[in-house]
Q: What sequence folds into this?
């Protein structure tokens, strides 16, 4: 009888405590900022998997047009309207947000060191070891090609830079554009043309570090060769490329009017949704004849950060913790083919085009886009210098040597390694 009474009292105590428990699970609404306006449906599906595990947390995915994202996020932080979670650009752009006090220190987040390599973590970490972002997305770069058109014209996948130019010439001789790329949206020349091919000519990661360490000047023979490669491609771009946007160039390829397109893995979902009436695949930028080393730009593109002023830090951290799991990595990789999770426990890629892109890494050196690390911290920044000079070379208004000299002179205005590098 006493035992029964104790059980009844315990049950009553549990019921009495229920409101407090329910209160702890009160519904919480979070907002996630991003520059990926094309991924709303996929990210909502990913978020739904998280919300199923934590029914009291609702996350709204609220992306901003990519070119406006940095300025918009900065303004949101300054006005106290920033999202609770947000995509973070890699290297200095996100680091500046942390330095301004806008991003939370998540160094003690469970699972970080187990889930990610030190290299990936370092991209969203201060020099003194404060982690302010969870490594999230890598994207790859390469050359899309029309398999059916290559077969029809008897073109083999190029294995050298010289063979690539010969393939482009064959396409041009048969009434096609060699490449569908265009400079109407300048960033595309920076990111999917110049920084796609640059590692091949400057020597990948080791070469890039030589510039950052002041061992090479930014107008040496390797940089001239990278700009010369842009000049090599110029005759095979559409005749009116200066006036064509990113979307226009995609459509030229998708309509079968060009045989190749220098692009990134992030366009796989768009290309698949357009359902072109030909088979397409990708290959890596080939090296010049006689050069054994080959490289792929495999860019550590996005981290995920937490607003230091969020009203719901516990719930936001739960999402960041979930990002360290194999479950998250597998869901993300297959919901968004072409966006590769940075988790060390790499999931199997089901999408054939994404798998083909990832396979380009095998046997090749990998590095991030050239301008990202160290060259965005001053003015004129390396990105703008590379972009504007590559476009000028493409349009034939300056020579590759002049482009390289402009890059060196611009960076030497503020970047100490460029000021002290050995003159050629």
A:
């Amino acid at each position: 009888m006493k035992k029964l009474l104790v059980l009844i009292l315990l049950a009553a105590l549990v019921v009495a405590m229920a409101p407090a428990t329910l209160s702890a699970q009160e519904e919480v609404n979070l907002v996630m900022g991003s520059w990926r306006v094309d991924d709303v449906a996929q990210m909502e599906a990913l978020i739904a998997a998280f919300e199923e595990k934590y029914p009291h947390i609702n996350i709204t995915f609220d992306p901003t047009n990519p070119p406006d994202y940095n300025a918009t996020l900065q303004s949101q932080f300054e006005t106290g309207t920033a999202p609770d979670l947000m995509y973070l650009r890699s290297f200095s752009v996100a680091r500046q947000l942390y330095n301004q006090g806008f991003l939370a220190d998540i160094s003690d987040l469970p699972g970080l060191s187990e889930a990610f390599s030190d290299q990936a973590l370092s991209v969203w970490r201060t020099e003194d070891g404060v982690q302010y972002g969870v490594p999230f997305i890598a994207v790859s770069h390469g050359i899309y090609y029309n398999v059916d058109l290559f077969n029809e014209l008897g073109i083999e996948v190029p294995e050298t830079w010289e063979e690539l130019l010969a393939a482009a010439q064959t396409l041009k001789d048969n009434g096609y554009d060699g490449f569908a790329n265009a400079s109407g949206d300048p960033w595309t020349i920076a990111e999917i043309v110049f920084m796609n091919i640059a590692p091949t000519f400057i020597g990948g990661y080791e070469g890039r570090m030589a510039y950052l360490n002041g061992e090479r000047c930014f107008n040496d023979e390797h940089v001239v060769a990278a700009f010369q490669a842009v000049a090599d491609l110029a005759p095979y771009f559409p005749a009116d490329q200066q006036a064509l946007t990113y979307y226009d160039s995609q459509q030229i390829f998708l309509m079968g009017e060009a045989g190749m397109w220098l692009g990134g893995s992030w366009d796989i979902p768009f290309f698949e949704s357009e359902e072109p009436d030909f088979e397409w695949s990708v290959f890596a930028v080939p090296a010049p004849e006689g050069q054994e080393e080959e490289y792929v730009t495999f860019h550590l593109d996005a981290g995920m950060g937490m607003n230091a002023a969020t009203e719901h830090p516990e719930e936001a951290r739960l999402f960041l913790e979930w990002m360290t799991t194999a479950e998250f990595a597998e869901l993300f990789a297959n919901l968004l083919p072409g966006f590769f999770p940075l988790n060390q426990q790499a999931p199997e890629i089901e999408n054939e085009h994404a798998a083909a892109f990832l396979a380009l890494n095998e046997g090749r050196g990998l590095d991030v886009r050239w301008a990202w690390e160290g060259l965005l911290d001053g003015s004129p920044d390396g990105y703008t210098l590379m972009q504007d000079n590559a476009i000028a070379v493409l349009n034939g208004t300056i020579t590759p040597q002049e482009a390289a000299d402009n890059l060196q002179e611009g960076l030497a205005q503020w970047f100490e390694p460029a000021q002290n590098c050995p003159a050629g």
